[in-house]
Amino acid sequence: MVTFKEGDHRLIPEAAADPVSFYRVTKVKFGGKGKEQDKTTVIYNDRFTVQNIPLEAYDCVVNRKPALEWVMERHVVKTDKASGIVNDANDHANKKIGDPRYPLDLSCRVITVSLETMRLVDSLPALDVD
Prior knowledge:
two-stranded antiparallel ribbon, about 35% helix
């Protein structure tokens, strides 16, 4: 079961007082240091750490990359050098979705969908090709 190191974030007063800054994400990364990455732990921002992620969640691959890693790469604030355009996942969450918690919730949903997808794939009968 995936858990938050900090407990239920919805009960933290700061989350209700200023959700836009509370849930702001600039870069999502794995726990651990350097080459000793801990893929069971994802650091969402300086307030949230998602832990106890089953390694099987990384078996669900999209475009040659685990789905969770694909989502993590897109939860950043990054400026395109050529155009100067700022790509900010928070803008999409706040303006289009209307929920500053959306990137965090999406990461958790992707873990669930990845695990469930692999459970279904593993339950399929072997393909008999002659």
